[in-house]
Amino acid sequence: MFLKYFYDEKLAQASYLVGCLASGKAIVIDPSRDIKPYIDTAAKEGLSIVAAAETHIHADFISGARELAVQAGAKLYLSDEGGEGWKYQSIDHYHSQKLKDGDKFSIGNVGFEVMHTPGHTPEHISFLFTDGQAVAPFGIFTGDFVFVGDVGRPDLLEKAAGERGTSEELARQMFRSLTKFKELPDFMQVLPAHGAGSACGKALGAVPSSTVGYEKRLNWALQYCDEEEFVNQLLSGLPEAPKYFAMMKKFNKDGTALLSQVEQPVRAPIDAEAVSNWVKEGIVVDTRPSNRFAEQYITGTINIPWNKSFVNWAGWLLSYDLPIYVLAQEEHIPAIARSLQSIGLDQLAATMNPSVVGIAGQDGQAYDNVTIQEANESIQLGEIYVLDVRNDNEWVNGHLPEAHHIMLGRLPERLDDLPTDKPILVYCKSGGRSAIAASILSANGVKKVLNLLGGYDEWSKRNQDFQVH
């Protein structure tokens, strides 16, 4: 058996290529939309990708299953559990097989058995897999069911997809699914679909894989024998559900465009006037580091730095209904386009070198980074409006005096709640999210924006006697 792990750190998403070396056949589990890495690896290993399987209808990225069906002729193995509301649509013209609990199939000499594991979603299934004639499964692909140190959150259908009243029922289903998981042999490998940083759980570990025995001993969710206690704990302290998750559910359920059908962005020559026109037509994203953006930027542009968090904030802050324009170095454009496409933001219309900012002249703007001391003085004088853009659970654990709270991802829809007659001091944990927030405020006409250097972490060190809870 051949087993290859793939990881997209911007999505904290894992997928797997499983091959039978004897037959030369392979399957991809929970494939990303960009299938080139699987195709290239399979060719290198002398394998042919004949199938793709999904543990559930994904909420945080566009699946590559249909891409593999079209480009590689792969057969699709998809869940048939969860009721009529959670069936895959638009797959009848693909070679596919619907799967129920206990179903089995093989790829060469590698055998797979389906285990229905609802809790994260109603249709979720996991795949036990066995190498050749072995008497016991080698491992289990758990998708968003069991992670290293955590389990899948049960509230996404309610918070992101609008399925009201589903969180508690799915939490109870998760308890029953975990009871089945505890019956598996301790030696089995656990291969999940996400790692640390994913919003599909609340405390995912950074280690890529585990074992059933290790999780039974140390995973917090497997320590509960009482269902009520488990449900209460599972539903508490969950992070915000990104807005784009609802779109992912729809795209992955109903189908979306193939990458070959997505238009490539135009690389525009440096022209500040063109950027100003882009601002009127859509959303212009400046991908430079936040400290560079703060020094000078073009009116109306927003700053989402090209780093590990880019996809998350793009999903929160960009619209699926407007054209997207990007200021970035040319060598970064292919990766930026792939990142946007990974969550269905296919409308990247044009890009330009960020050096255009330097020739913007009077159109260039800047916002101020302020120190803790400067912020304290202004707060005491009542001269500024203090805005906390951290997550809800961070806010309740402490915040600056006189602060108001709007989580960064919800800021664009809450702009009317902000004052227009005084400067706004914005802060987060350490300064990264508040820098993005500062750019949004400025792009939407706030005249004076201040970003707190070091954020709440630095402020709390200096003002331990004044933390507000």
Write the layout of secondary structure elements.
Layout: E1 2-8, E2 13-20, E3 25-29, H1 36-44, E4 48-53, H2 65-71, E5 75-79, E6 96-99, E7 104-107, E8 110-116, E9 125-131, E10 139-143, E11 146-147, E12 150-151, H3 156-159, H4 167-181, E13 189-192, E14 210-211, H5 212-218, H6 227-234, H7 244-254, E15 266-267, H8 272-281, E16 283-286, H9 290-295, E17 297-298, E18 302-303, H10 310-317, E19 324-327, H11 333-341, E20 348-352, E21 364-365, E22 368-370, H12 372-380, E23 385-388, H13 392-396, E24 403-405, E25 424-427, H14 432-443, E26 449-452, H15 455-462
Parallel strand pairs: 3-4, 4-5, 5-6, 10-13, 15-20, 16-18, 16-19, 19-20, 22-26, 23-24, 23-25, 25-26
Antiparallel strand pairs: 1-2, 2-3, 7-8, 8-9, 9-10, 11-12, 13-14, 17-21
Helix pairs in contact: 4-6
What key attributes describe this structure?
469 residues, alpha/beta, six-stranded mixed beta sheet, 15 helices, 26 strands, globular
Account of the protein in words:
The chain is α/β, with parallel strands linked by helices and 469 residues long. It contains 15 helices and 26 strands. The strands form 6 sheets. A 6-stranded mixed beta sheet has the order 1-2-3-4-5-6, covered by helices on one side. A hairpin with a 4-residue loop joins strand 2 (13-20) and strand 3 (25-29). The model has no long low-confidence stretch (mean pLDDT 93).
Distance between the termini: 54 Å
Sheet with most strands: 6 strands, mixed
* Morphology: globular
Q: What oligomeric state best describes the polypeptide chains here?
A: single chain
Low-pLDDT runs of 5+ residues are none
Structural class: alpha/beta
Helix content, binned percent: 25-40%
